[in-house]
Write a structure and sequence with these properties.
The chain has about 280 residues and is an alpha/beta fold. The protein has a single domain, classed as Rossmann fold. Helix content is about 40%, strand content about 15%. α1 links the parallel β1 and β2. The longest helix has 15 residues. About 45% of the residues are buried. Bound molecules: NADP nicotinamide-adenine-dinucleotide phosphate. NADP nicotinamide-adenine-dinucleotide phosphate (NAP) binds next to α1 and α2.
Length: about 280
């Protein structure tokens, strides 16, 4: 049995479906998950990983561990990892920031502490370190639907953002196949794209023009602070505005594991066009 935490999120939802389609017995964990959120046959377990007595199965072949919501900054890594110590394997979704932003309290230090807890758990482990997700563009959905506009900072700065479905595919492989023990993988998309290019890809996907509005860093920060803590917002803006050479580079790891190139942002936009499509 494989446990997928973060089972209702961008990565977890696809991972639950993929593992189920592959014939694995899957338990889906999130605070508010219900059977209606999961494919038939999947066991839905509502549990808060921040709680010391998180009611998760005590044994399993493998667990996909996702540090969702407040857990990154407020969770106790040793306590969050402890319930999975008797599992055959832990695959942790971490962040590229552990390598590129080691001084950041969020992307660097907080995730490094979760990685350490997993490495110290005594269980076989694999660490996945993605860069930015294509699904961050969902933040543009309401303005695209309402006014066909995208407002974003650093419109000309390119980053090889990754499709969360590719993360789920890598997670499925590392959870179920041999050869990934004690491996740390950096996960990126196939090529850097700028926010302006991503807005244009969404415009292509919905068949309507979209106006790109340049935001200042302060405007973007005010928006980010409505749904993330200040340290996370500040590091996010540092990455978006002044990425390091490594953050701008395409990693070979997705292709190495999946045997195919990572998915382009334009494909993500086409698959998610309905989110942006509603008539003005
Ligand atoms: N977005 C990016 O650019 C980026 C880049 C690098 C790394 N990451 C990392 O990737 C992860 C986000 O992945 P995602 O986009 O797939 O997630 P998401 O869509 O934000 O969903 C989060 C999932 O975690 C669950 N969750 C949140 N808090 C929980 C708790 N205390 N106990 C149990 N379950 C909890 C949520 O369900 P409930 O709310 O019902 O519990 C949901 O299933 C984060 O760790 C983030 O730091 C993101």
């Amino acid at each position: 049995m494989i446990v997928v935490t973060g089972a209702t999120g961008n990565v977890g939802r696809t991972l639950v479906r993929t593992l189920t389609e592959q014939g694995h017995e899957v338990t889906a964990v999130a605070r508010r998950v219900t059977p209606a959120d999961t494919p038939p046959g999947v066991r839905a377990v509502a549990a808060d990983l921040a709680q010391p007595s998180a009611d998760v199965p005590s044994e399993g072949a493998a667990v996909f561990l996702l540090i969702g919501g407040d857990l990154m900054m407020a969770g106790d890594p040793v306590r969050v990892v402890a319930p999975f110590a008797n599992y055959g394997r832990i695959v942790l979704l971490s962040s590229q920031g552990v390598a590129t932003r080691p001084q950041s309290p969020s992307h660097g230090r907080a995730f490094a502490a979760f990685e350490q807890a997993v490495m110290d758990s005594g269980t076989e482990w694999t660490i996945l370190r993605p860069g930015g997700f294509a699904s961050n563009a969902y933040a543009w959905a309401s303005s695209v639907r309402a006014a066909r506009t995208v407002a974003a900072p650093f419109g000309e700065v390119g980053l090889p953002i990754i499709d969360p479905d590719d993360i789920a595919a890598v997670a499925a492989a590392t959870l179920t196949q041999p050869g990934h023990a004690e491996a740390v993988y950096e996960l990126t998309g196939p090529t850097p794209t700028t926010p302006r290019q991503r807005a244009a890809a969404i415009a292509d996907a919905i068949g309507e023009p979209i106006t790109f509005i340049d935001q200042t860093r302060e405007e973007a920060r005010a928006q980010l602070l409505t749904f993330m803590p200040a340290p996370v917002a500040d590091t996010t803006l540092d990455i978006l505005g002044t990425p390091t050479a490594r953050e701008r580079s395409v990693s070979p790891d997705v292709e190495k594991i999946l045997g195919r190139a990572p998915t382009a942002f334009a494909d993500w936009a086409r698959r998610n066009a309905s989110v942006f499509e509603q008539v003005m």
